[in-house]
Write a structure and sequence with these properties.
Length: about 240
């Protein structure tokens, strides 16, 4: 049995990943208590409310893990938020609203700072336990530049290069780290950012349960095998 902390576990890909890992000891993390509680009850798992952009809440989560989840061996960073809009589109009300400085800061704080903060806070526990695995849910936007979403692009590239920068140090301490980089997925990710995409685009999205199987594949690898990054695409939507 492994001890797995999953952020963003109340919905979408994080929830599907939790379902596939139901036989492990799970600690589900997110902000929406109603969603988290429901997933946790169905899987007989624990949950903890934590906004990964908030340092005080991260420290509360750290205290909870040290007290109740000290055998932690796996961190799955799945929490993330979306925004889009080219700089030249900012005169358009929709794109202006998606690119207020507050929204930009929240995307960077969640996707980049939040991921780095979770690793900085919890990787020392894995190192102390002499074995561990970190899986970051990154994105196609973390490995390609896409002019329609420069801020999201920057936020995911930040995580991708952070992973590259820390992987050898972690490996020396028997901790491996992987970026899983999906293309478009059929979740509420865009709707939540007031950017619901047309049906003809969404139908070319990956099912989150299929992407969760990729996470499980990485999770199930023998410990001595590490996959630095893995990309997942719908065949009709490269
Ligand atoms: N959907 C796509 O097309 C797509 C493509 C490539 C990569 N991704 C990545 O896949 C991951 C999962 O996204 P999804 O598509 O499954 O969408 P989702 O259902 O909206 O999942 C995102 C999760 O992140 C959590 N979250 C957001 N901000 C948070 C914060 N500050 N603190 C803690 N938790 C926070 C949300 O939960 P709470 O609201 O409860 O906090 C939510 O459960 C994200 O990292 C996203 O960047 C998505």
């Amino acid at each position: 049995m492994r001890y797995v902390l999953i952020t963003g576990a109340g919905s979408g890909l994080g929830k599907e990943t939790a379902k596939l890992l139901k036989d492990e000891k799970l600690l589900l993390v997110g902000r929406n208590e109603k969603n988290l509680k429901k997933v946790a009850q169905n899987l007989d798992a624990d949950y903890f409310i934590c906004d990964i952009t908030n340092i005080d809440q991260i420290n509360e989560l750290k205290a909870h893990v040290e007290k109740n989840f000290a055998n932690l061996d796996t961190i799955i960073n799945c929490a993330g938020v979306w925004t889009k809009g080219e700089i030249s589109q900012l005169s358009d009300k929709h794109f202006a609203e998606m690119n207020t400085l507050e929204k930009i800061k929240n995307v960077l704080d969640t996707n980049t700072f939040g991921t780095i903060a979770m690793i900085t806070t919890f990787a020392p526990i894995l190192i102390k336990n002499k074995k561990g695995q970190i899986i970051n849910v990154n994105s196609q936007s973390g490995v390609e530049t896409e002019e329609f979403c420069p801020v999201y692009n920057a936020s995911k590239h930040g995580g991708y290069f952070y992973r590259k920068a820390v992987q050898r140090d972690l490996a020396k301490h028997n901790v491996k780290i992987t970026d899983v980089c999906p293309g478009l997925m059929k979740t509420d990710f865009f709707v939540k950012a007031d950017d619901g995409l047309p049906q003809e685009i969404m139908k070319l999205g990956l099912s989150p349960d299929e992407v969760a199987k990729t996470i499980k594949y990485v999770f199930d690898m023998p410990h001595e095998i590490t996959i630095p990054s893995i990309e997942v695409r719908h065949i009709k939507n490269y």
